[in-house]
Amino acid sequence: MPPQPARLRAAVVGTGAIARGSHLTALADHADEVELVAAVDVDQAMLDGFLTAAGPGVTGWTRYDEMLAEARPDLVLLGTPPSLHREQTVAALRAGAWVLCEKPLVLSLAEYDAVAAAEARDGGPGPYASVIFQHRYGSGAAHARELLTAGALGRPLVAHCQTTWYRDAAYYAVPWRGRWASEGGGPSMGHGIHQMDLMLHLLGDWTEIRAMAGRLVHDVQSEDVSTALVRFAGGTMATVVNSVVSPQEVSRIRVDCADATLELTHLYGHTNDDWVYTPAPHAAADEARVRAWRTPAADLPSSHSAQLSEVLAAMRAGARPPGSGADARRTVEFVAALYKSAFTGRPVHAGEIVPGDPYYAAMHGGAPGWAPADGAGA
């Protein structure tokens, strides 16, 4: 692998609120490793505001292709509407840049596989594309995964994954929201995907899902509520709830293991204090073991910055980063299976959605009552 510069060159594409907040903060936290050199937005006023916030040394562009050709970034951070992600990710990869993209990385399994085809092969030095699943990162999540993977809490038995948020009519007045072609789905795809990804990160491979979806409040193409029952390869059984009609908002993961319950309760991000471990009666007397369950003293919150740290380390090593490849595809497949089960009324098993399956090409699968009636916006 050729020698790398002292600092990697980054470009932010899409300069809205997520870029001005989370992306700029993450880049500032890692300023010794990465330098923001370019920003892209088709809205000149939005771009100008971002450039003011970013400070000197950042060049603005309104054309993405020109930025890739002339700025030649090492890393592209995508914060554009979801319908643009596949095309922009593939373009960056073909230009030799790594990608860290806001969720959802793509709108279907077919799009995910198109992105994978543009990546370097596993074992190569890159470039690779990662999706921002920042709830996986931080000291609390890392500690929980270590405990579960090592069997330190006993066998995981029952789990609950909850994203019950609230979005009003003004939120869905934004033209690309609530439409399959531009957002890929409702709260299952655009909101609950964070907690569902964390659930999979903690519990591993799923094998079967049975789901329901509904439009209870909002006049949208996709759902505003979904629920599911899930079975994991290790036997764990889980419930999943995704909602944008819940006035009392909360995000929650709970795993009941043979020796303890692990619970995370937060909203848009977590620290060590948000993770609680409750020992089973037979385990409570083992004080040393219970102490080992508690989250570590060093407190790294979940954040874009925490995930960017992992991506930059992978770039330096020329290795596939977390949140990419088969690891991230599993989450996309899970969402596709949730929709397929909800819209067909039958269980769906891991691995069954393959090319030729209507749910491989689109999350709505062409289902009557869910797919756009005239095919427009599909």
Any idea what the radius of gyration is? 21 Å
Using DSSP, what is the number of strands? 14
| CATH homologous superfamily placement of the largest domain | Dihydrodipicolinate Reductase, domain 2
Helix-strand makeup class: alpha/beta
Output the number of helix runs. Answer: 14
Domain Gfo/Idh/MocA-like oxidoreductase N-terminal: 8-123
Pfam families: GFO_IDH_MocA, GFO_IDH_MocA_C3
GO molecular function, one term: nucleotide binding
Protein name: Gfo/Idh/MocA family oxidoreductase
Explain the layout of strands and helices:
Blueprint: E1 8-13, H1 17-29, E2 34-40, H2 44-54, E3 59-61, H3 64-71, E4 75-78, H4 85-94, E5 98-101, H5 109-118, E6 129-131, H6 139-150, E7 156-166, H7 169-172, H8 180-183, H9 187-190, H10 193-203, E8 206-214, E9 225-232, E10 237-243, E11 245-257, E12 260-266, E13 275-279, H11 287-293, H12 304-317, H13 325-344, E14 348-349, H14 358-361
Parallel strand pairs: 1-2, 1-4, 2-3, 4-5, 5-6, 7-10
Antiparallel strand pairs: 7-11, 8-9, 8-14, 9-10, 11-12, 12-13
